[in-house]
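Minimal example, chain plus adenosine-5'-triphosphate.
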Amino acid sequence: MTKKRVFSGIQPTGNLHLGNYLGAIKNWVKGQEEKENFFCVVDLHSLTVPQDPDDLRFQTRSLAAWLLAAGIDPDKSTLFIQSHVRAHAEGCWLLNCITPLGWLQRMTQFKDKAAKQESVLTGLLDYPVLMAGDIIFYDADEVPVGEDQKQHVELTRDIAQRFNSLYGQEFFVIPKPVIPEAGARVMGLDNPAAKMSKSLAHLRGHAVRLLDDPKEIGRSFKRAVTDSGQEIVFSDDPEKAGVNNLLGIYKAITDKSEAEVLADFADARGYGDLKKRVAEVVIAEIAPIRERYDRLMADPAELDNLLARGAEQAAAVSNPKVDQMKEIMGLVLPVIGVQ
Ligand code: ATP
Ligand code: LTN
């Protein structure tokens, strides 16, 4: 039986946090054995809001190093940088030409991000089309992402279906989002009503960043907002969102069931104890990743070699797919040698 193909991407925008790790990266690592995986540092997506060039260059390598440090194994998965493979930007144009504008104007992430920008770039509106291409140029079956990206994967399905029906063939595989149950939505420690977010990670006590040292992690959990009660339970009640978030983090890190998690806290003395124990498991998980990250960043040539290998493997799949797409759409392919 052929393995299911998985594609996922993450933006090199810095400040990688526990939400990114539990909502995305940890699941990528777990799924490496049974699936054929493509993991992409989506640097072109980062350009949809203004970036400092030096910072973007650093963050792109840094994110690749974090992914390897977290356990992405280049012998099992293809890890690469989006802009290293021509199919992404080129194929995005082709998809633009079959995607109705209204579909993009409806995206909630676009509306949220556009509201925060003084001047909205065309690329920001087009962001989901670039993302759709990432996925469908690899014939991916599954897209593991956090809850916030579900709408984009649904749009990807619509775009793929539209291409297939316009050109009368099953050319693109219709992918489905895979949302992890635990860790799908890690909330801010300072405000459990809002998701933990890179763009807020500079605020004291909002996020646990993978770069934080154990002391800082301990302090962030200590300050975490809870309620005035003392019941340690999983709950949908907005009042209990803080406690629910702490338990959810513990559950995602330990891979335990809700019952097992609650049993672990049966003897806890109040929220102080809860916060301390959650901090401990988070620190134990992150510390070795941080050590591997430091080692990888100390050898940039080796990192670049690994990424070159990944780009070559990725290009071998997506470039021919985009060339086929061009042909289907009526473009004339150049004779061999003019690439
Ligand atoms: P920002 O909030 O500043 O836009 P981000 O923190 O969402 O950025 P992304 O690069 O957009 O970061 O997301 C990377 C991956 O992490 C995605 O798969 C996303 O779904 C997941 N993710 C992001 N934040 C969370 C969170 N709080 N909980 C769970 N998963 C998350
Ligand atoms: N939009 C996603 C990042 C992303 C992605 C992808 C995720 C870009 N291309 C393809 C899955 C598949 C985000 O912000 N997390």
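Residues 132 and 155 are 8 Å apart (CA to CA). Residues 10-11, 13, 19-20, 23-24, 145-146, 148-149, 183-186, 195-199 surround adenosine-5'-triphosphate (ligand 1) (CB under 6 Å).
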